[in-house]
Amino acid sequence: KMPEWGFSCSPRTLGNMLLLESGHTVALNKVTGKGIWASEKYRMGYGSVTVFDNGKKVAALNNDALIILDTATGKELAKH
User: Percent helix, strand and coil across the chain, each rounded to 5?
Assistant: First the structure.
């Protein structure tokens, strides 16, 4: 379900991936658009993915939590 005021994020690239926060944090192949991985589903918000730890991790802020994900697998490493 779309939130009353919509949602938005700034896309980020990392290697061959396009990273987006859209309820699920997703990594897509930036050339083909094919899905690489997706996080657990959360409520959409206005946060953007931030890459850190030399490209090994991403942080994403949604309407439920700040989550930290492994960029290789999309595995959730932390949530607050």
Answer: 0, 45, 55
Q: How many CB atoms lie within 10 A of CB 63?
A: 13
In angstroms, the CA 60 to CA 49 distance is 5
Q: Could you tell me which of 72, 22, 16 has the C-alpha nearest to residue 48?
A: 22
Residue 36 — φ and ψ, nearest 5°?
Answer: -105, -50
Q: How many CB atoms lie within 10 A of CB 22?
A: 16
What is the residue-averaged pLDDT of the chain?
93
pLDDT tens digits, 34-60: 999 999 999 988 889 999 999 999 999
